[in-house]
C-alpha cells in the first residue's frame, strides 16, 4: 500500500491565513501613512523656509538646501542673499519647529496613556509650567548662583521638580491614581504660573518684553547650534517609547489588566513621567511655552491610526512636526511684518478643541460610553 502524501501543516501558534493577510494589509497601510506624512513634512519645510518678507521659490529653496548638504550636486542659480536667508535664518527655525512639535506630541501621547485621561498634556499636568518657571528664573534672576545655570538645565530642573511634586501629591495609600494626577497637575500649573508672573513683574522693565515673548513661545532666534540637543532628546524619547509600546497599550486596558500582565505600574509611571519631564524641559528651553500641542495632536493622530501605540507613536511625532511647522508659518506671515508668538496661534486652535473634547466626553458619559 502506497503511503498518502500529507499537506504541510502550519505551526500551532501561527494566525489563520485571512488574519495574516489582514495584518499584512494593516502594516502596508501604516507604512504608506508614514511615507505620506514624511513627504508632507518635507514639502512643508521647503515651503516654510522660502516664505517670508523676502519670498524664495520652493524650487530655489530646495536647490539651496541640496547644495549645502551635497556641494556641487546642483548648479547655483540663486543669489547670496537668498542662500543666506534660507540656510542661516529660516531653515533652522523651521526645523526647530518640527522637532519641538514632534517632541510635544510624543509627551502628550505618553501622558494621556499614563494618566488614562484624554485631557492630559504637559500644561494640564503642570510640567510645562514648572519648566517655564525654571527657565524664567534663569533669565531674570541676575547676580545669583542660579543665573549661571544654562537655560536648558534650568528648564529641566523646573520640569523635574514639578514632576516630583506631582508624584508626591498624586499618591494615595502608596498608589498613583489617574484622577489625583490630573487634579494635582492643574493645581501645580496655577501655582507655577503665579510664581512665574511674580518673577516677571519684579524684574527689570527692559527684560519684561523678552521674557513674555519667551513664555508665549517662539522659535525666531533658532540657530543650527540649537537643533542638536533638542533633536537628540526627541529621537531618544521616540526610541524609548517605541520600545515601551506594549506597556503603554496595557495601561489603556486598565490598572488591573496591566498588573495581571506583570507590569509594575508605579515604576512604569515614574519612568514615563521622568522621560516626559526631560523632554518637556528641553522643548520649553529652546522654544518657550507652547501649549495645546500635546493635547490636540494625539487625538488627531488617533483619527488616522487608532489607539494602538505601535502605530500611534510614530504618527503622532510626524503629525506634531507638521502641525508646528504650519503654526510657525502662520505666526510669522498672518500679521506681517509683526510676528505673533507661536503660543498665541496654538492657543487659538487648542482652546476650542479642548472645549469640544470636554463636550464630547460629557456626551459619552450620558450615553454610558465613558470609562
TrEMBL record:
SUPFAM superfamilies: ABC transporter involved in vitamin B12 uptake, BtuC. InterPro entries: ABC_BtuC-like, ABC_transptr_permease_BtuC. The chain crosses the membrane at residues 31-56, 95-115, 122-145, 151-169, 181-201, 272-300, 312-334, 340-358. It is a multi-pass membrane protein. Gene3D superfamilies: ABC transporter involved in vitamin B12 uptake, BtuC. It is found in: Cell membrane. The keyword Transport applies. Keywords: Cell membrane, Membrane, Transmembrane, Transmembrane helix, Transport. The keyword Metal-binding does not apply. It comes from the Bacteria. Belongs to the binding-protein-dependent transport system permease family. FecCD subfamily. This is Iron ABC transporter permease. It comes from Nocardiopsis exhalans.
Amino acid at each position: 500500500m502506497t503511503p498518502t502524501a500529507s499537506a504541510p501543516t502550519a505551526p500551532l501558534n501561527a494566525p489563520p491565513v485571512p488574519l495574516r493577510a489582514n495584518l499584512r494589509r494593516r502594516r502596508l497601510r501604516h507604512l504608506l501613512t508614514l511615507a505620506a506624512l514624511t513627504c508632507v513634512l518635507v514639502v512643508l519645510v521647503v515651503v516654510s523656509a522660502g516664505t517670508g518678507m523676502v519670498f524664495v521659490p520652493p524650487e530655489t529653496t530646495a536647490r539651496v538646501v541640496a547644495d549645502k548638504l551635497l556641494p556641487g550636486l546642483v548648479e547655483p542659480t540663486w543669489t547670496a542673499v537668498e542662500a543666506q536667508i534660507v540656510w542661516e535664518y529660516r531653515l533652522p527655525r523651521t526645523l526647530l519647529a518640527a522637532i519641538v512639535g514632534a517632541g510635544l506630541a510624543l509627551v502628550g501621547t505618553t501622558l494621556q496613556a499614563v494618566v488614562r485621561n484624554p485631557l492630559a498634556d504637559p500644561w494640564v499636568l503642570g510640567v510645562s509650567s514648572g519648566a517655564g518657571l525654571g527657565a524664567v528664573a534663569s533669565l531674570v534672576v541676575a547676580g545669583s548662583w542660579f543665573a549661571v545655570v544654562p537655560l536648558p538645565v534650568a528648564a529641566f530642573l523646573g520640569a523635574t521638580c514639578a514632576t516630583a511634586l506631582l508624584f508626591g501629591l498624586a499618591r494615595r495609600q502608596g498608589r498613583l491614581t489617574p484622577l489625583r494626577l490630573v487634579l494635582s497637575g492643574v493645581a501645580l500649573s496655577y501655582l507655577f504660573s503665579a510664581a512665574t508672573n511674580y518673577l516677571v513683574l519684579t524684574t527689570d522693565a527692559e527684560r519684561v518684553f523678552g521674557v513674555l515673548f519667551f513664555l508665549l513661545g517662539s522659535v525666531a532666534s533658532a540657530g543650527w547650534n540649537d537643533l542638536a540637543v533638542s533633536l537628540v532628546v526627541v529621537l531618544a524619547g521616540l526610541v524609548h517609547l517605541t520600545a515601551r509600546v506594549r506597556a503603554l497599550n496595557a495601561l489603556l486596558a486598565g490598572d488591573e489588566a496591566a498588573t495581571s500582565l506583570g507590569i509594575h505600574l508605579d515604576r512604569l509611571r515614574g519612568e514615563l513621567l521622568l522621560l516626559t519631564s526631560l523632554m518637556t524641559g528641553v522643548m520649553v528651553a529652546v522654544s518657550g511655552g507652547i501649549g495645546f500641542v500635546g493635547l490636540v495632536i494625539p487625538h488627531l493622530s488617533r483619527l488616522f491610526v487608532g489607539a494602538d501605540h505601535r502605530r500611534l507613536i510614530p504618527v503622532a511625532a510626524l503629525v506634531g512636526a507638521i502641525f508646528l511647522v504650519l503654526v510657525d508659518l502662520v505666526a510669522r506671515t498672518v500679521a506681517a511684518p509683526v510676528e505673533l508668538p507661536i503660543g498665541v496661534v496654538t492657543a487659538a486652535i487648542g482652546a476650542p478643541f479642548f472645549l469640544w473634547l470636554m463636550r464630547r466626553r460629557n456626551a459619552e458619559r450620558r450615553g454610558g460610553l465613558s470609562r
